[in-house]
Every structure is written in C-alpha cells, then in structure tokens.
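can u do me a favor
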C-alpha cells in the first residue's frame, strides 16, 4: 500500500467518516476476511481453526493467499472493499511485509472505499506488540487485542501466554499507533462473582478504547475445556449466575457510554466494527485462507480447514475453496434473521424482504412474534423487528421459534 493511500485511509477514519447508520449495503460493496491459522499455542477454550506449526514457509503462504484472493476478486469484479479483517489464529504473527502485500493486492483487485476499515487481531505478547508500528505503516487502521482478562489467575486458567503487564502495554502501544482499538475480555468464569467482574469491567472501561468485545465463557465441543468439565476438573458458572453477570455488563457499559450494539460487542457510537456489521447485516464478504467462510452473490463458500489441505487445493486449483453452495431465498432469509437479530438495532423486515426477494410471511412466524412480544422479548413496529435486552438472554431459544 502506498504511503499516500495509507494516509488517506487514516485521514478518513480520523475525520469520523465511519459513523453509525451511514453504512448501507449496495451491490458494489464487499468485505474481505483473511484467515491466518497459526498460533504459538492452542488455548483450552478455543474452537477456532487454529494450528501450531514449528515452521512456516512465508513465501509459500504469501503466494497461496494472493492466489486465493485473486480467485475471489475475479468472481466479484466491480465491487469495492468497505472493510478487511485479518483473523485467526493469531494474525499479529504475520510479518508486516506480508500484510502489506495482501493489502496492496486487495486494493489493486477491488479498490478501497474512502473510509475503509482494516482490522487485525493481535495478542498482547511483547514480540507481537513490537510489530504494531510496522503494521500501522502497512495500512492496518484498527486492531483487536485478545486480552481476555486483567487477572493473573484467570489468564493462567484460560491458557493465555501473556501477563497482565503485557496486556496493559499492548493497549497503550496500540492506542499510540492505530486510530481505533478494541480488546476482548472473557467473563462468567467458574466461581466469578459480580463484584469481581464489575471491578475488572470498570477497569477495562477506564482504559479509553472505543470498543469492547465481552464474551461469556462457553464450553465448546472438542476443546480441552470440554474434556476437563467432563472429567470434573471444574464446573462452569450456572445459567442464572451467568445471566446476572450479563445484565450487570449491560448496565455498566451503558452507563459508560459504550452500550451493546450486538449481543457481545460494545462501542461508542461510530466505533462499531464495520466489518462485523457486514456479517450481521448480511452483506457480501469474501473469505480466504484455511477454513474461511464467505457469502457472496447468493452463495456460501468454505475453504479447506487444515492448512496443508488448503495449500494442496491452491496447488491443484489456484484457490482453496472446498465448497461453493448456492443459497435459496429462504435459506438466505434464515441466515439474515439469525445474524441481524443479534444486533440491538434489529432488522427491517420490509427492507430485508426487498433485498432477498422473499415475502415477509415466508420469513417469520407472525404468531410466534406476537406471543413473544406479549412476554416483552421482542419489539415490532412499522416493519422493524428487534430483540429486547431481556430477550437477548434467550436469543438461541427465540430464533427457532420465529423463523419459518
């Protein structure tokens, strides 16, 4: 990415061109997700497509990612990138030169929206933090840091490779180099009290970032934590206690001016994750790299998950796609509802109906909506449907009831 282009991107974000509500989808808009699958170690709660490898041939991976990107770009000619997200795995382990090469190629393929958001996930380890300045120069303008906790015991329980001091240093360094900074915390840990969580969340809010991702600990199938729970090594927090912490979270963040705009994500107005909003508002996005998903031109795409299998597919076909599945209008409507109702803003049924060319009566069960409205779990007015704050606690149970 040229210095001039990088400065233009930074200037547009500094001037606040990405504001809540001014980002509307069009046939020309697309987002790009780049998956970097490698980590230093596997966290016991993680079910993401992440892998530990002793050596990585960066030249091979550079060529493969560029080839995978070129395939998606050829299929989506005429679109313009509104956001890019480097996820993983641990993409802050990528050499900044590789990030820059991918951004140059993405700009050449699609062109950038004037207010493009370019996010990279990072861990707080000192080696990765040292790359922040170079990543910013490469064109990254937003970073999401996997802090997870500011308590030493919790970090050890979660299998994190950094300490509390490194977490604070990472946030400070990120704020010095990037226009926008977010970090993640995990709560509802075993035996965590409301006082403990309130103390930690209040501290997190004092650090001045405009975005926080706050996730309740979930025991995912196939993870080390699932094995430990099954063996009786620890007991997860029960649902009532977790619900109490969730409600406490909403109250504290709302009072601090960083309310939830999605079930687990909180931001000052204007600092919502533009890339994730593309997912939740059911916009088009291309996904490249091992295991990456995509939704573009009414089709679902999935890359091969295992890095070696993905590389082999690149060698055979020039891309890493394992499947490209056309989606019917009802299938797209179901996905759009599942994603959109995670948002505090909800969805406009009529607008969605027009976009997907499907009648509202073929998307939602009106009787179920009326019943749940009577319980204060859903609000509907003028074609707009949203889950209420109490309903968010029951979102997984509500969605199957209202979708046809």
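np, heres the sequence
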């Amino acid at each position: 990415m040229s210095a001039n282009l990088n400065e233009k991107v930074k200037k547009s974000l500094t001037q606040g061109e990405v504001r809540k509500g001014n980002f509307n989808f069009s046939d020309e808009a697309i987002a790009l997700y780049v998956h970097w699958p490698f980590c230093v170690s596997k966290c016991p709660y993680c079910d993401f497509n992440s892998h530990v490898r002793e050596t990585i041939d960066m030249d091979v991976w550079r060529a493969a990612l560029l080839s995978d990107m070129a395939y998606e770009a050829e299929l989506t000619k005429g679109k313009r990138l509104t956001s890019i997200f480097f996820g993983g795995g641990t993409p802050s382990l990528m050499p900044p030169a590789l990030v820059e090469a991918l951004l140059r190629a993405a700009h050449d393929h699609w062109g950038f929206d004037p207010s493009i958001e370019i996010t990279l996930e990072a861990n707080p380890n000192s080696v990765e933090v040292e790359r922040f300045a170079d990543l910013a120069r490469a064109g990254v303008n937003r970073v999401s840091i996997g802090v997870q906790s500011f308590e030493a015991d919790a970090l050890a329980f979660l299998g994190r490779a950094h300490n509390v001091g490194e977490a604070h240093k990472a946030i400070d360094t990120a704020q010095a180099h990037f226009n926008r900074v977010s970090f993640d915390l995990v709560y509802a840990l075993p035996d965590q009290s409301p006082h403990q969580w309130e103390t930690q969340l209040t501290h997190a809010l004092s650090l001045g970032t405009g975005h926080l991702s706050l996730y309740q600990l979930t025991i995912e199938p196939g993870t080390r934590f699932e094995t430990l729970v099954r063996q009786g090594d620890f007991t997860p927090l029960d649902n009532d206690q977790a619900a109490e912490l969730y409600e406490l979270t909403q109250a504290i963040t709302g009072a601090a001016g960083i309310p939830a705009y999605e079930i687990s994500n909180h931001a000052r107005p204007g600092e919502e994750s533009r890339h994730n909003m593309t997912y939740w508002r059911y916009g088009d996005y291309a996904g490249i790299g091992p295991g990456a998903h995509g939704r573009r031109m009414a089709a679902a795409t999935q890359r091969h998950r295992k890095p070696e299998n993905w590389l082999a597919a690149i060698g055979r076909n020039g891309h890493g796609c394992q499947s490209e599945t056309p989606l019917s209008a009802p299938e797209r409507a179901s996905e759009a509802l599942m994603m959109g109702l995670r948002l505090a803003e909800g969805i406009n049924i009529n607008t969605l109906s027009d976009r997907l060319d499907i009648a509202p009566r073929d998307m939602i069960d009106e009787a179920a909506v009326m019943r749940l409205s009577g319980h204060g779990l859903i609000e509907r007015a003028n074609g707009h449907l949203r889950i209420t704050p109490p309903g968010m606690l029951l979102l997984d149970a509500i969605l199957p009831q209202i979708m046809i």
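The mean pLDDT is 90. hope that helps!!
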